[in-house]
Design brief:
Length: about 325
């Protein structure tokens, strides 16, 4: 794991202060090796396009490298979205409702010091500061699709590790069935809290088995660097088979419970946002069809929409979690 540290423990340094990170070079070498050895056309074609260029470090923030993930399904072969799009087209309502607002406003987010309190139905409740969190497990790079319920999607190379690594550390009790995620709500830093669109703090929830699934990622970085504030610095969740809003940003507490937790979106509009919110092309949102999506960056009037895949394409890995459930009822 490579993370530039200073007295504060974690810095969003400018690129000029950063020495080039050899591990990131390794990643690119790995991509080349994989591409060279690929039997089928897919990998070679993918690597032959601009994917290698696209996952180069943008050089804006402190480097945070991760080794390519070995978790099944963790690396889509799709071309990553341009960093400029991934960092300037955001939902982060604490910093405004417009897609461009978070990139404009989130510079007021102070990420040092930072810690996550893990509590509730666990044998070993604990508070982890950011350095402890960063060092708890090896950082991995995972290229995930993320689809918003509004009908757009992105492909983002995240850096982090399975949330399960952190949850195992606190030893969930047998009675724990759900996990609640509480995010920062600080009116001094977050102008969006003046609006009452959501009941702050923004909270999210998962069933414990969903939270323990290896694809559920605790993310600290993207594109080989620490997370930009607007993408949920310094630590967020990424749950790639669920709509984007399940991926809570700037987490400050994680609570294990025996009851299904309320979530910010569920409280705001119960009929629109269910607890599960699995990506499902067959279950339309009351205002938006979920059958297709627009990939951010594939702009222009004539850009073809993509068909949305069941569980956002992660069905092979996560479908079993929902065996026997009526996903139209439990949306
Ligand atoms: N705290 C917080 N987390 C949040 C949100 C938010 O408004 N506040 N928006 C969610 C939504 S709707 C989406 S689509 C994703 C967007 O993540 P991205 O900006 O990294 O693409 O963040 C999710 N996490
Ligand atoms: Mo979203």
């Amino acid at each position: 794991m490579l993370i530039r540290t200073d007295r504060d423990g974690f810095s969003h340094a400018r690129s000029s202060e950063i020495t080039p990170q050899p591990v990131y070079e390794e990643r690119r070498q790995w991509l080349r090796t994989v591409a060279a050895g690929a039997a089928g056309g897919t990998l070679a074609a993918w690597a032959g396009r601009d994917a290698l260029a696209a996952v180069q470090r943008p050089g804006k923030l402190a480097a945070l490298a991760g080794q390519p993930s070995q978790v099944a399904g963790a690396n889509t072969m799709e071309t990553p979205t341009a960093y400029a799009d991934a960092s300037q087209y955001n939902n982060y309502y604490e910093f405004g409702l417009d897609k461009a607002d978070p990139a404009r406003n989130a510079h007021t987010l102070k990420t040092t010091p930072w810690s996550i309190k893990v509590e509730g139905l666990v044998a070993k409740p604990a508070t982890f500061d950011l350095q402890e969190l960063l060092q708890l497990s090896a950082q991995e790079e995972r290229i995930y699709r993320l689809r918003c319920v509004e009908g757009w999607s992105m492909v983002i190379p995240w850096v982090g590790y399975s949330l399960a690594q952190l949850l195992r550390r606190v030893q969930p009790l047998g009675s724990a069935k759900y996990v609640e995620f509480v995010t920062l709500a600080d009116p001094k830093m977050m102008p969006g809290l003046r609006s009452r669109v959501l009941d702050w703090p923004y909270t999210e929830g998962l069933r414990l088995d969903e939270a323990m699934h290896p694809l559920t990622l605790l993310a600290f970085g993207m594109y080989g660097e620490v997370l930009p504030a607007q993408n949920g610095a310094p630590v967020r969740l990424v749950v790639p088979w669920k709509y984007g809003f399940k991926s809570a940003k700037s987490i400050v507490a994680i609570r294990l419970t025996d009851k299904q937790p309320a979530t910010a979106w569920n409280k705001a509009a119960r009929n629109e946002y269910g607890f599960y919110s699995n990506v499902n092309p067959d279950v339309p949102h009351p205002r938006w069809s979920q059958s297709s999506e627009r990939r951010i960056g594939e702009g222009g009037l004539f850009a073809k929409k993509r068909k949305t895949l069941m569980f956002n394409g992660y069905g092979e890995q996560v479908g079993q979690l929902y065996a026997g459930m009526d996903l139209k009822q439990q949306f």
